[in-house]
């Protein structure tokens, strides 16, 4: 009998053993996970072969990305205006935004914004996530540096910045993840304001609109699927919100995991197939199946097969 999690409307079976790595590839910290239009799954981690690609059944297809070793973090798949899907990365070690083809050919690299008022030898730029607006503009969150959001054109030209350390409206405390919300009348920017335990919503020009601060516990990033948001709460669960950003359910919740000594790198005997410990990335395929990447030194990927 398989293991099932979720609630009445969102029930899943755990696909134990999904996505076996070939000999010669070993995960580092698994940070991001994406799915393309063909339901191929892309896993981003901090070792060599930093992007590992599987088909929907978990069969290995190919890998690339040695240049992201150690710095792998933000990871985003987007269909641009040309109708082609591309991968966008943020590298925390090289302080880079990188755009590639789905096979890893580098098309664009953008470094630290030319803002000497924000960055210098002591004040580092450490980008953690990236997203793309409908007009092609690229947004990068400096989640481990000075806590700003930076906007660039599709060609990588600097547009504007906003944020900075704080807890009041418009200020950020570890803007770890960033995504564009297309569910309303106009696009909005959702920022995972992680150490403030909230989502902060901005216009695409950087004006604060509102907070979402219920049912979250260290939110890392976002994945929009239909009218819903799937987001990894690093504190040991995946949270699903409805079109009004209200709670539908938590998946794999383990409220003891992040309280354990040594977390996130716990003894292997601790882990259970139907529980998560440190979810850092999530995506959903066309069937509604959920894929979770966890922030653990040797990686952990879980597939949940949608039942209802």
TrEMBL record:
Keywords carried by this UniProt record: Glycoprotein, Repeat, Signal
Name of the featured protein: NHL repeat-containing protein
Keyword Membrane (UniProt): no
Pfam family for this entry, one: NHL
NHL repeat positions: 163-205
Extent of the signal sequence: none
Origin superkingdom: Bacteria
InterPro entries according to UniProt: 6-blade_b-propeller_TolB-like (IPR011042), NHL_repeat (IPR001258)
PANTHER family: BLL1368 PROTEIN (PTHR10680:SF38), PEPTIDYL-GLYCINE ALPHA-AMIDATING MONOOXYGENASE (PTHR10680)
Presence of the UniProt keyword Cytoplasm in the record: no
